[in-house]
Design goal:
NAD(P)-dependent oxidoreductase; NAD; three-stranded mixed sheet; 2 domains; N-(1-d-carboxylethyl)-l-norvaline Dehydrogenase, domain 2; alpha/beta; single chain; HIBADH-related_NP60_sf; 9 strands; six-stranded parallel sheet; Rossmann fold; NAD binding; about 290 residues
Length: about 290
């Protein structure tokens, strides 16, 4: 078993810490907001305290700014971690910041992986996340038992930065599905179709997806409780756009989703689930997607 520090006890980090404790790892936790604890884990007083003498330090934070503060700030991980500790960034961040992190840790002789995850609150709590990793083979092998404890599967995508890039590719597909689901349900409702019957068809066709099934059912119940908040999806779509511009790839669907997410955020829907973007489309058509 490994000594593991988990920095950041939001929805994802807390679930990871709980599952690491359950797997028998010796876990230390630290959170920027004091008072957050995990049963069976030691609560550190500072980042320096948290990362001292650890086999693995992992963090799953909300955005680039949070990673810069916690990992690369004056009193952050980079300032205190020592080899042979391995650092694992499981956040969804820009590819450019991931590259910057790798370079900064390498300069200090610290092994690092970028290992963002697919999944949300339920998967984090159940240890069923899907991890996409960038880094060298030896480092991935060293931390594999830690990654296995929080995930259903681990996918080594290639060298440093590959995990961060794969996460943005995946979130492009998620955003496109949410946008298309909203458009489809709105069109169906405006055309007079029974949305329950629409979803029955969608569930058995060759274009079915778990997102259409799960999110579609929640939309019909008017349930937008946050498993993955809309403001985070908005942030991720912006990162997708930046990466696409850097590599010269056309992503017109991302720009459509970005516009819908911007409107949704402006209408105060940012703390709801990302699926709340469908409300924007339904409102424009003057229809109600809830089936009461």
């Amino acid at each position: 078993m490994s000594a593991v520090a988990v920095l950041g006890l939001g929805t994802m980090g807390r679930g990871m810490a709980v599952n690491l404790v359950a797997a028998g790892h010796v876990v230390t936790v630290w959170n920027r907001t004091a008072g957050a604890e995990v049963s069976g884990a030691r609560t550190a007083a500072s980042i320096a305290d948290a990362v001292r003498d650890q086999d693995v330090v992992l963090y799953c934070l909300s955005d680039d700014a949070a990673v810069r503060a916690v990992a690369m700030g004056e009193d952050g991980v980079l300032a205190h971690v020592e080899a042979p500790t391995v650092v694992v960034d499981m956040s969804t961040i820009s590819a450019s910041l991931s590259d910057e992190e790798h370079a900064a840790y390498a300069e200090r002789g610290i092994a690092m992986l970028d290992a963002p995850v697919f999944g949300s609150k339920g998967e984090a709590e159940a240890g069923g996340l899907w991890v996409v990793v960038g880094g060298d083979d030896e480092t991935v092998a060293r931390v594999r038992p830690v990654l296995d404890a929080v995930s259903e599967s681990v996918h080594h995508m290639g060298p440093a930065g590959s995990g961060a890039r794969m996460k943005l590719v995946g979130n492009l597909l998620v955003a496109a599905q949410l946008q298309s689901l909203g458009e489809g349900l709105t069109l169906a409702r405006a055309a007079g179709l029974d949305l329950r019957k629409v979803l029955d068809v969608v569930a058995v066709t060759d274009f079915r997806t778990p997102i259409y099934d799960g999110v579609g059912a929640s939309i019909l119940k008017d349930d937008y409780s946050p498993a993955f908040a809309l403001h985070l999806m908005r942030k991720d779509v912006a990162l997708i756009g930046h990466l696409a511009k850097q590599v010269g790839a056309p992503v017109p669907g991302a720009w459509v989703a970005a516009e819908t997410l911007e409107i949704a955020a402006a209408e105060g829907l940012g703390e709801l689930n990302a699926s709340a973007l469908v409300k924007v489309l339904a409102d424009k058509a003057g229809v109600d997607l809830a089936q009461r």
